Structures are given as C-alpha cells and as structure tokens.
Amino acid sequence: MIKHHLSVGQLSVSLGLATLLLITGCGQRDEAPATKGGPPMVRRLTEVEYRRIVADVFGGSIKVPGHFDPDIRRAGLIAIGTSQESVATAGMEQYDLTARSIAAQVVDEAHRDTLVSCKPAKATEPDDACATTFFSRIGRLLFRRPLTADELRAYVGSASKGAKELGSFYAGLGEGLAAVLVSPQFLFRTEVAYANPAHPGQDRLDAYSKAERLSFFLWDTAPDERLLNAAKAGELETDEGLQKQVDRMIASPRLAAGMRAFFSDMLGFDGFVALAKDPTIYPRYSGQVSIDAQEQTLRTLTDLLITQKSDYRDIFTTRKTFLNQLLGSVYNVPSTAEDGWVAHVYPENDPHIGILSQVSFLSLHSHPGRSSPTLRGKALREIFLCQKVPDPPGNVNFALVNDTKNPAFHTARARLTAHRTEATCAGCHKIMDPIGLALENFDSASGYRTLENGDQIVTAGEIDGKKFEDVFGFTKAIHDHPMVPSCLVNRLYSFGVGRIPSKDEASWINYQVKQFEAGGFKVLPLMRRIATSSAFYRVSTPSNETTAAIAPRAAPSETLPEAGK
Q: pLDDT, tens digit, for every residue of 474-489?
C-alpha cells in the first residue's frame, strides 16, 4: 500500500491564530476608517465544508462516509474555533478512511469516465501524463490554488507507484487522490501573505488566499473555476475585478448555502447533535423534528433576507415561514405539503411570530423535560445582542428551579423569583430571566400552553428598559433593540475572518453598522460592503511564532501552469 507523502505530524499543529486580514489597495474605496490588519489565518475545514467541497468537485453521487471530530465553538462561532484546532491521531485516522473511500469511488467504473478527464495508454500500467492532467485540475480545486511543482511530482509519483504495485492505473490514481484528500493543504485553509512592494513594511495576501477567504465567506465552500481564474489573472488585485466577482457570487443561487452556513453557526445549530427530549413528556418530538426544525428556520431566513430582501430585524417579527407535514403536526397547523415544504403565514393573533417562536430556538434552549427561561434568555443575549453571560458558579443549588411540582411555586416565574434571592445568582438572572419568560408560553418542544400547574403563565417583562406585556411586545422590543444590528455586523465579520475583531477595528465595525442602518438593515448590501472592503483582506507581517505555525506554500511564480496551458 502506498503511504501518503505528508505525515500525521504535519496536521497536529496548533492553530492559535487570531486576527484580521486585508489586501492594501484593493477592495471598495470608501470613507471607512482604516485598520491595521493582522497575520494570515489557518483554519480547519468544518465537516460541512469538507462535504460541500467534495460534492462541488466530484458531484453529489460521491458519498462521504462517517463523521469527523466535532468542531470547537469559540466566542460564539465555530468559524472562530476552527482557527484554534488541531487534529489528533484518531481524527487523522478518520480522515484517512474517508479519503480512501472517496478516492475509490472517484476512480471506480461507475465514475471514472466522468471524473477522470483523460484516458491512460494502458489501464493496467502507470501513465504519468494522464495523472499529471488529473492532479493539475483536481489539485487546484481541492487546494484552492495551483499545485507546486514538488506537490504535483509527489502525487503523480504516488499514483505511478500504486499503479505498478496494484496493476491498475485507476487504483494508483486513487492512491494519489487519497493523499491529496488527507493532506494539510486540503484539510486546512492556509492563508499566505507576501511583502507588498507598494507599501514597504506591509504584507498582502496572495490572490488565491484572497479568493479562498471570499468564497468561504459568501458560499461556504472552495473557490470555483471562475474565481480561481480571476485570482490567476490578477483581477482580484483591482477594485473593479474584486467587485465584479463579489457581485457575481452574491447574484448566484449558491449564496443561500453561505447564508445558511453563517446562521447555522450563529444560532448554534451544532447543538442539535446532542439534543434530546423526554419522550414520555414530548412524544411527538423526534430526531427528524430536530432536522426539520433547523431547515424551517434556515428557509425562513434565506427567503426573508435573500428573496424578499427585507429588513434583517424582521426575523423577529415575520409571520412568514415554511412548513412540512411533520412540523405542521408539531405546530398543530394543517399542512398541504404531501412530500416537501410549503410557504405558510401565521394569522395576526397567532403567538408563533418570528424565528424565536420556532421549534429550533425553543427546543435547543430548553431542558429535556421542561422549558428554561434562563437558557432562552442567555441565548437571546449572547446570540442576538453579542453580550456574554457568565457561567453560574459551581456551587449553585438548582433544586428549587428544577422542582416543577413544588406546591409553593407553580410556575417557572415563581421558582426563578425565589431562586434569585441567592446573591450569587441575582445579577445574571436579572438580565436573562425577564426576556426568557417572554417565551414561557412555549414548552420545551415548542408546544403552546397558557397554564403551568393550573396557574396562569405571565409573560410580561422588560429588556434593557423596554417593557412588554406578551410575546408580540417582546418580539417588537428585540426587533428595535439597538444592539441587534451591531451584533450581526460583528458576527458576520467574525465569521468571514475567523476571529474576534480587534479594538483597532472598532471604528470600522461602527462605520459598517451605520451604513447597515442607513441602508434599511439589508443583509445583502452589508455582505457586499464587507466582501469588497479593504479591511476584509488586510494583513500585517506575522510574528515568528505565527509564521512557524503556517504551512509553507510556494510563491506564485513557483507554481505550475494548468495542464494543457
């Protein structure tokens, strides 16, 4: 069996990088405050990104088996956590098994005529010319830039050796492809910077790093052929060329995948993996409900923000959504969808208003057997207002809150009010419970109720001085909260650059918030402003420690031309 020419040790590198990037002289010229930039980033592909790239490059018929190590969430986003991850031996073994399975499918008789663009002189012998053509094209798509001469020789050599040992050109090609799929250059998004001759003392991202950052930001996948070609031609180094590609990508149907990836991350949908509900209390809740609940929210968001181009804040007050038969039964709404999704509009008096009343939010931020105003309030603060709520002290006694049968405290409001008499609990609960209680009419599985243990559920409260009486007043209050727009800008920018914005970038973020407000809080123009801004790509000279953590890449002049060129 052929060994991969890149060792596991190359993957087990700590990626503790955190700062922002930008190419000097490129991007949209505007009045935004200048930023200093930061070192290039190294970010591990998420499992979703890995699967999407495989589908983009090889087609949907190629199956990706198994699962990888769970991603780490930092500062509210997996997109930040991926810059601080390494791969352990067990994780590397799963990558290796997955890579071999994918490679075997690509070169099997059912796929080779479509996915291998050349024919070997003899199917039982090596053919370096054909292998070179294959790896030049496929490697460029998987590595998000052209292979270096050394890389190409290594993969062609692996294919040649494998073909000799196994007596099959295609089996050998599969060996080489498996090595590509398990290499750090594929599994990690490694950005590269070079000295900027126009501005001594400053660095700039190479064109392929810039294309990679742009593509993952807008589409959550690797650059397509057109974007790679634009990078090769130097088009991304000009304002006009960059804006042309950004406009093309925003107009593409693939933008929906990027927006879904962002909101899945922002809303913490990875939490559904471990979510469970007590089946004796919530018999209608199931794993499929969890899946469909996420889909409902993502359909609602993409329709509202991409198709309707509505005000972002309307995600809290919209009555438009999508249902299938399963979710229709959960919401007690007759659904006409026999096998799929249909648009649905809740009537004016229906308490299901906005995404906060959907199963995805209500069930994810509840306990297995009961709702939780505290968990919901914490999620509202952290997800939509970017306010970090401290974790409770380790010695807190939750017995009173958990005792739903306490004869003295029939409702969650009563139990939480009593619990807040503990000095160590009062501060945090004061900012969580009043807004979480606004959703208390919804149980842990999103079922609607007006009573708890025979007592009326009271949902009145306030959020940062804004009082409300019910869920309708609450959703209006969160819609109008001044921190909602700035939190989105912060989250969206962090998602793109893979780190928390620095203090140096505060003025730039504030400028973008003002532009967002002036434009009616429309998300697509916001994404365009970020993607065409110089701040999104600016880099500074990395420290020696950072440089050592970044896998080397040849300069553009050292890369090979595309096969046949």
A: 999 999 999 999 999 9
Q: Does 274 fall in a domain? A: yes
The answer to whether the CB of 357 falls within 8 A of the CB of 327 is no
Distance, C-alpha 510 to centroid of its chain: 23
In a domain, 346, yes or no: yes
Contact 52, 513 (CB under 8 A): no
Scan for tokens 């309030």, then name that residue: 377
Cα(97)–Cα(110) distance, rounded to whole angstroms? Answer: 20
Contacts 24+ apart (CB under 8 A), 112-116: 112/170, 114/59, 115/58, 115/59, 116/170, 116/173
> In this structure, what DSSP letter does residue 232 have?
H
The number of folded domains in the chain is: 1
pLDDT in tens, 338-351: 779 999 999 999 99
- β partners of residue 343: 322
Coil, helix or strand at residue 410: coil
pTM for the model stands at 0.89
* Residue 445 located in a structural domain: yes
What is the span of the domain harbouring residue 433?
266-479
Among residues 329, 328, 404, the alpha carbon closest in space to that of 371 is found at 404
Q: Is residue 220 part of a domain?
A: no
pLDDT in tens, 154-211: 999 999 999 999 999 999 999 999 999 999 999 999 999 888 777 676 678 899 999 9
